[in-house]
């Protein structure tokens, strides 16, 4: 009989995580930040509250957000928060530098931020609308990942031809870093009236394997999570931005009788960033309680 050691209770002790889009206690970003803190990590939370103020659910009390994350820290782990508008081209690299300066290291990057609202059908698309979603949801995620990855190599950046690999120092006994991207339900069906958002997220899902293969040369693990329908306020009658007619009746036909809670994808992300989840690489993972199976 083989003896197996159990996973450590605090697998992220000594690690520092940057989580973007952490400005509301009802959001997925807050759940991810508190989960990583509970697992032992120091946490740097990025937020851009002006975006929330333009949406039906509004902004949250940032002091309460900060206090909530701090309450989950363990031992000597630290917390910091950084405001930033990721629609600005230079903001991603600056954010990574600022986050790394908090503890002197950066081991985990969770790109949870997203632009929402002001979307539409294909008939409503304009260059400006498409660019706005692309800049925040796609470009900023790729630039954050690039800045994060550069911290793991001393090789100067140089033009590469198709097929040229990044030079790393393989083999690695364990991952040197973890990156998690967030995509959406466009991989399972249409997102009517959300063409710009779905486009920006589909690009991340589509390029996950390519970027994961490159990051693996540096010992960095990338996976992408589709959290499925998670109520972060947009399904509450007083803050919704869509029709809720028939929602309750439909939910009775689902396996769990509810949509997701922010903690549901947060638990998966916490596991992916731990040693236990490090053999999973380059995957687009749907964590939706079976919603995508309903047809």
Largest sheet: 7 strands, parallel
- Give the strand order, joined by hyphens, for the main sheet: 3-2-1-4-5-6-7
Low-pLDDT runs of 5+ residues are 1-5
Beta content: 5-15%
Q: What is the N-to-C succession of helices and strands?
A: EHEHHEHEHEHEHHE
Write down the domain tally.
1
SS element count, helices: 8
Q: What is the correct CATH architecture?
A: 3-Layer(aba) Sandwich
General form = globular
The total beta strand count reads 7
Structural class: alpha/beta
Termini separation comes to: 44 Å
Mean pLDDT: 93
Walk me through the structure.
With 295 residues, the chain is α/β, with parallel strands linked by helices. It has one domain (16-152, 169-289): Rossmann fold (3-Layer(aba) Sandwich). It is built from eight helices and seven strands. Strands 3-2-1-4-5-6-7 form a seven-stranded parallel beta sheet, sandwiched between helices. Strand 4, helix 5 and strand 5 form a beta-alpha-beta unit. Helix 1 packs parallel to helix 3 (62-70), helix 1 crosses helix 8 (263-272) and helix 4 (91-103) packs parallel to helix 5 (127-150). Mean pLDDT is 93; it is low at 1-5.
Relevant terms:
295 residues; Rossmann fold; 7-stranded parallel β-sheet; 12% strand; globular
Q: Could you give a quick summary of the protein structure above?
A:
The chain has 295 residues and is α/β, with parallel strands linked by helices. The protein is built from 8 helices and 7 strands; from the N terminus they run βαβααβαβαβαβααβ.
């Amino acid at each position: 009989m083989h003896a197996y050691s159990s996973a450590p209770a605090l697998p992220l002790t000594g690690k520092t995580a940057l989580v973007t889009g952490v400005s509301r206690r009802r959001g997925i970003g807050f759940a991810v930040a508190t989960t990583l803190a509970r697992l032992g990590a120091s946490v740097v939370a990025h937020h851009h509250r002006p975006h929330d103020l333009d949406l039906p659910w509004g902004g949250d009390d940032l002091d309460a957000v900060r206090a909530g994350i701090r309450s989950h820290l363990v031992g000597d782990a630290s917390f910091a928060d950084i405001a930033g508008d990721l629609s600005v081209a230079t903001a991603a690299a600056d954010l990574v530098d600022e986050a790394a300066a908090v503890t002197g290291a950066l081991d985990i990057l969770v790109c949870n931020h997203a632009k929402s609202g002001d979307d539409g059908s294909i008939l409503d698309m304009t260059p400006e609308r498409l660019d706005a979603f692309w800049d925040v949801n796609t470009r900023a995620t790729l630039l954050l990942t690039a800045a994060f990855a550069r911290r793991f190599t001393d090789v100067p950046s140089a033009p590469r031809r198709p097929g040229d690999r990044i030079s790393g120092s393989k083999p690695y006994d364990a991952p040197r870093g973890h990156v998690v991207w967030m995509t959406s339900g466009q991989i399972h069906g249409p997102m009517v009236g959300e063409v710009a958002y779905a486009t920006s997220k589909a690009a991340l899902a589509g390029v996950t394997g390519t970027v994961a293969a490159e990051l693996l040369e540096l010992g960095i693990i990338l996976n992408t999570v589709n959290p499925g329908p998670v109520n972060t306020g947009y399904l509450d009658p007083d803050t919704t931005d869509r029709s809720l007619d028939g929602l309750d009746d439909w939910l009775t036909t689902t396996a769990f009788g509810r949509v997701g809670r922010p903690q549901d994808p947060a638990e998966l992300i916490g596991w992916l960033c731990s040693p236990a989840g490090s053999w999973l690489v380059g995957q687009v993972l749907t964590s939706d309680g079976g919603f995508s199976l309903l047809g």
